[in-house]
Specification:
33% helix, 323 residues, alpha/beta, five-stranded mixed beta sheet, four-stranded mixed beta sheet, binds oxa(dethia)-CoA, globular
Length: 323
């Protein structure tokens, strides 16, 4: 069978940093509260003329370089974002143009903080079925554009950034020893859609709107859903916790990450944590964590990784990948 092997990883964070001390000047909050309740110290904010596509292109070019490939080697781009440059066309075609990819196809997916996992699953299926040999999967966000900077419940949480991976088809023997994506499980439950929304939308009021979240409720579901889907994906490949080198979680809240890791019996040194210096970058957070793990030398070839995400919708997902 065909497996999707990660050939290269890239990431990009905008230059400007917004610290907790900066936020203390903007809303009624404190560095102590933010660190204690979320684990976040600072986040990156895109410049006014820096668009989601600009971040995505930087991450994509680096992933291609690290894979030793050029734009025209790629058959499909799947870009996950909640903050596209424009309502149409897809942000992915800007990336396609920028990397000099003149064949194949490119499009966006939207599954909020689980966007990268959904995009990965789409690309993995194209590779498994032979529809593509190489794919570029990107998570890119300028979430700062839809944050209500007067709402202390949400404005302390989010940041901007982009991460990308290049996937390539490789033959495997269907076992958990294979290199590449071993399995991805996706879930959503629309009954919970109202717990994490924006105040606007194209069809509803022709505005992008700003984020509104029932944080405590989202938190409550997150640990349960994440631990459950992680166990399911591990069970699907007959993998136990001590076979996994790193948990690469969506970075929303350090307490969610700790709670999930504890439920799954992972020590802190087996968890990739970028949250303190990036905040929650939504669809970009998992590929950025992967990028951090790889560039810091912790994630090595042959390591088994467990990825997991939870976000608006609700959407949630778990994946096992041998790097
Ligand atoms: O990525 C998508 C998925 N999103 C998530 O996973 C986020 C999940 N939720 C969370 O991470 C947490 O619920 C938050 C970090 C958003 C909030 O933490 P919490 O411990 O659940 O706090 P809370 O909402 O229960 O609020 C506790 C108190 C409230 O005051 P009262 O009502 O007890 O007087 C809030 O008004 O903390 C207050 N509060 C703040 N205080 C200082 C809320 N935000 C702040 C703030 N600074 N920034």
């Amino acid at each position: 069978m065909k497996r999707s092997v990660i050939k290269g990883v890239g990431g990009y964070l905008p230059e400007k940093k917004l610290t907790n001390a900066d936020l203390e000047q903007m809303v009624d909050t404190s560095d102590a509260w933010i660190r204690e309740r979320t684990g976040i110290r600072e986040r990156h904010i895109a410049a006014a003329d820096e668009l989601t596509s600009d971040l995505a292109i930087r991450a994509a070019k680096e992933a291609l370089k690290n894979a030793g490939l050029s734009g025209d080697d790629i058959d499909v781009i799947v870009l996950a974002t909640t903050t596209p440059d424009d309502t149409l066309p897809a942000t992915a075609v800007k990336v396609q143009q920028a990397i000099g990819m003149t064949h194949g196809f490119a499009f966006d997916v939207q599954a909020v903080c689980s966007g990268f996992m959904y995009a990965l699953s789409v690309a993995d299926n194209y590779i498994r079925t032979g529809m593509a040999t190489r794919a570029l999967v990107i998570g890119a966000e300028t979430l700062s554009r839809i944050v209500d900077w007067q709402d202390r419940n949400t404005c302390v949480l989010f940041g901007d950034g982009a991460g990308a991976v290049v996937l390539e088809a490789q033959d495997g023997d269907s076992s958990k020893a294979d290199q590449g994506v071993l399995n991805i499980l996706l879930r959503s439950d629309g009954r919970y859609r109202d717990l994490l929304v924006t105040t606007g939308g194209v069809s509803r009021n022709q505005k992008a709107g700003t984020i509104l979240m029932e944080g405590r409720e989202v938190f409550r579901h997150a640990v349960t859903n994440l631990a459950e889907i992680a166990r399911q994906v591990m069970g699907s490949m007959d993998v136990c916790a001590d076979e996994i080198s790193y948990l690469v979680p969506h970075q929303a809240n350090a307490r969610i990450i700790d709670g999930t890791a504890k439920k799954l019996n992972f020590d802190a040194e087996h968890v990739i944590l970028t949250l303190p210096y990036q905040g929650n970058t939504s669809a970009a957070s998992i590929p950025l964590a992967l990028y951090d793990g790889v560039t810091s030398g912790r994630i090595k070839r042959g390591d088994l990784l467990l990825l997991e995400s939870m976000g608006g919708g609700f959407t949630w997902a778990g994946a096992l990948i041998r790097f």
